[in-house]
Specification:
By secondary structure, the chain is α/β, with parallel strands linked by helices. Among the domains are: 3-58, no CATH class; 73-173, Sandwich (Immunoglobulin-like); 261-392, no CATH class. 37% of the residues lie in helices and 18% in strands. β7 and β8 form a beta hairpin. α1 packs parallel to α3 (48-61), α6 packs antiparallel against α8 (298-321) and α9 (326-358) packs across α11. The longest helix is centred in the middle third of the chain and has 33 residues, at 326-358. The chain is globular and about 85 Å long.
Length: 740
């Protein structure tokens, strides 16, 4: 093996030669890690020199780069690579608007066009390959005044006609991402951020749904809130509802149909059989058991919902599709608007259901019959032709859930909320799901995203999510990324991008290896940031970047310059001596919150239950590490009380001795939320777990489902009673007083 070539190939594809953990320890990237990560990118590490030569040839034999990012109103500088023997001919360029997800898929109108002779231009580089000389010329395009995607085409006259020989997707981004007018100046807003599945109510079917969300929006708007935050709503696995993590979805481009409010679907009021089924004493008893459970029973919830949804689908087919009603036409418009992405998702669902009925062990597309693994293959086309009704059913489900979410977004607008729905975009997707099947050439095979060791995850993390391969994503014109952003911004006023550092770099872990053996892989930051800014601007959607963990130098200032908000949990905002920052020191361009779903709740932090839980799960190297964290936590409790005292927020009768407060109290929780409300940050969100002083967190990173009920906990307080709950009323009054 040529070690030098291996290192050069790894460097060329963005694999870093070392990383520093959160304690500053340097970890060199081993050659074995390089080999595994290169293989995951589709490279042959044993032929590193040949791979480098192939990449060089592809680069120099391509007339235009696949993508170029530029800013509105600025000259566009692009390089054109021309064989030397064609440099004195006339070439033609044409620039067209192109807003399709996949490059060139939408109708486009010409914006600019001209001709040029490369030999008359400026040479910026040259190369000789296989006896042929290539020259790279600078081509200056006029400034583009409107943000958008454009298709640059390069052509020549050949054989009596003009032939397009090269294409480039041009991303023209606004200088800043969308900023809501309601947050101009020093204006701020606030609201709840909930795990939707965990909402408990007298009417839902054992899982929080869009009916509950409608009630929460009304309650929050009545009390002065301007934003309602949610966990990722991405499509999970209808064939296997027990796979419940919203951060390991089947697809980020579609929605989890378990969030449907079944009784609010128009067909429910039309369908006598469905209403009779739900009204049966046995069915009502099932729903009562599901409502009473402290954990979401996803399997039984799904069984109840799909039993009734099947009846409603037949009602829709008989009453609407068969007659071409307005409702049928609305479904057709939705299907046409979502195009090939929806058809592939519905196909995936239908194929997976079909294969799963034949073999319960089939967990996803990698173990489907070979003929069904290629979405563009003849086998999939034949399946679609023979199972049209099943495909139609899953497309119909997505229409229903999109219809309900759209109504909720409109409800926020109707109540004049400053931001409205604040949704969450997961970092990645499950390797067996619909999104990887549809875009499998762009995802890594044999590596997963993760994180190096840090204070909260001493062993590091491996999330089981195949990352985008940077050069393949770029070659696809960022189409998979654009599709995911558009799907999640459709009805949102704000979008949180999980682990936003992935725009610049992502920690890759070879499959089956410990996280510490991973390495960072770099991404085309400015191009990916341009995509985020452009999509946020197009949808009128504020963007929040979850920038926790190891953040590259200069990353946060660049996000702020582009108009993205930073994500600042109270537990992490410290001075150099580890005291809690005063409110005035928080940034304006930020979302603040006490904690997150992956961190201890306020009550859990206070009593240290998270430390005991991690110790019980074996997530520490030694007992001494757990003891050190217990001692640090005791100091933190003192620091919290001291910070409140400095702000004059220490509750009456309370001093800075935490020994007198073994458990979190309602008064202390309210004081800490009020402390955060005083920050200049544009957004503040509050977790119900912290309103009700719950110790258990939604998710314990590094734990398995049999060790901890991740993504299953339900709130103990019914949503129907929040309006009259003293804790909710006191908190909302304090936030309204502090933030308006």
């Amino acid at each position: 093996m040529d070690v030098n070539a291996l290192h050069r190939l790894a460097e060329r594809l963005g694999i870093a030669d070392h990383y520093h953990d959160i304690w500053g320890t340097r970890h060199p990237t081993t050659d074995e890690t390089r080999r595994r990560l290169l293989a995951a990118m589709g490279m042959d590490p044993d032929r590193a020199e040949a791979e480098l030569e192939r990449l060089d040839a592809e680069d120099w034999q391509r007339l235009l780069p696949p993508v170029l990012a530029s800013a509105v109103g600025r000259p566009v500088d692009i390089s054109v690579t021309i064989p030397d023997d064609s440099a004195d001919a006339f070439w033609y360029w044409r620039l067209r608007a192109d807003d399709g997800v996949r490059p060139g898929e939408s109708p486009a109108c010409v914006q600019h066009a001209d001709r040029f002779r490369p030999v008359d231009g400026r040479v910026v580089a040259e190369c000789e390959l296989a006896g042929r000389r290539y020259l790279r010329y600078a081509l200056d395009l006029p400034p583009i005044e409107a943000p958008g995607y454009y298709l640059l085409e390069l052509s020549r006259d050949q054989d009596g006609g003009r032939t397009v020989l090269g294409r480039c997707r041009l991303i023209v981004a606004p200088v800043q991402c969308h900023q809501p007018a309601a947050l101009d100046g020093d204006r701020r807003t606030w609201g709840p951020a909930v795990q939707l599945y965990g909402l408990r109510s007298q009417r839902n079917w054992g899982i929080g749904d869009f009916g509950d969300l409608a009630q929460l929006i009304e309650l929050s708007a009545d009390m002065g809130a301007g934003v309602v935050g949610l966990n990722p709503l991405h499509a999970l696995f209808t064939h296997d509802p027990a796979r419940a993590s919203p951060y390991s979805p089947s697809s980020r481009c579609f929605l989890n149909v378990l969030y449907l409010d079944v009784e609010a679907i128009p067909e429910f009021s039309e369908c006598v059989e469905a209403r009779a089924r739900v009204g049966e004493p046995a069915f009502q008893a099932r729903l009562a058991r599901l409502r009473q459970s402290d954990l979401v029973n996803y399997v039984d919830v799904a069984a109840a919902k799909f039993e009734v949804l099947g009846l409603l689908y037949r009602q829709f087919c008989d009453r609407h599709l068969a007659t071409g009603s307005e409702r049928a036409q609305a479904f057709s418009r939705f299907r046409a608007a979502r195009g090939v992405e929806l058809e592939r998702h519905a196909l995936f669902e239908a194929i997976q259901a079909h294969c799963g009925r034949e073999d319960a062990g089939i967990w996803g597309w990698p173990v489907w019959p070979e003929s069904l693994r290629d979405p563009d293959g003849d086998g999939v086309a034949a399946f679609a032709a023979g199972h049209g009704d099943a495909v139609n059913y899953h497309a119909w489900l997505q229409w229903l859930v999109d219809e309900q979410l759209q109504a909720l977004g409109q409800a926020c607008l109707g109540r004049q909320m400053a931001v409205g729905l604040y949704l969450d975009l997961a970092l990645g997707v499950n390797p067996g799901g619909a999104e990887v099947w549809a875009w499998q050439g762009v995802f890594a095979q044999g590596a997963h995203a993760g994180a190096p060791p840090d204070d909260f995850n001493l062993l590091g993390q491996e999330w089981g999510l195949p990352p985008f391969v940077p050069h393949r994503l770029r070659a696809a014109g960022y189409a998979p990324m654009i599709a995911a952003l558009r799907a999640n911004m459709r009805h949102a006023g704000a979008l949180r991008i999980d682990h936003v550092m992935a725009l610049a770099r992502l920690f890759w872990v070879p499959a089956g290896r410990p996280p510490a053996e991973g390495a960072y892989v770099s991404y085309p930051f400015e191009e990916m940031l341009a995509v985020v800014s452009l999509e946020g601007w197009r949808h009128g959607c504020l963007v929040i970047g979850e920038d926790l963990g190891t953040v590259p130098d200069g990353f946060r200032p660049r996000l702020a310059e582009a108009g993205l908000l930073s994500y600042r949990p109270f537990l992490f905002e410290r001075t150099p001596d580890q005291h809690f920052k005063p409110p005035a020191d928080y940034p304006r361009a930020a979302l603040v919150t006490l904690s997150t779903h992956d961190l201890p709740t306020l009550a859990g932090f206070w009593c240290g239950s998270d430390i005991e839980q991690r110790a019980a799960l074996g997530l520490f190297f030694s007992d001494s590490q757990a003891d050190a964290l217990r001692e640090a936590r005791a100091r933190d409790r003192v620091r919290v009380l001291e910070a409140l005292a400095r702000e004059g927020l220490l509750p009456a009768g309370m001093d800075t001795d935490p020994g007198k407060l073994p458990y979190m109290t309602d008064a202390l929780a309210l004081a800490i939320q009020t402390y955060l409300a005083r920050t200049p940050a544009k957004l503040l969100v509050v977790q119900p777990e912290d309103i009700f002083c719950l110790a258990e967190q939604a998710n314990v990173p590094g734990s398995l489902d049999h060790q901890h009920p991740n993504w299953r906990r339900r709130l103990p307080v019914e949503l129907d009673t929040w309006r009259d709950d003293d804790r909710v009323r006191a908190l909302y009054a304090a936030l309204r007083r502090e933030r308006g």
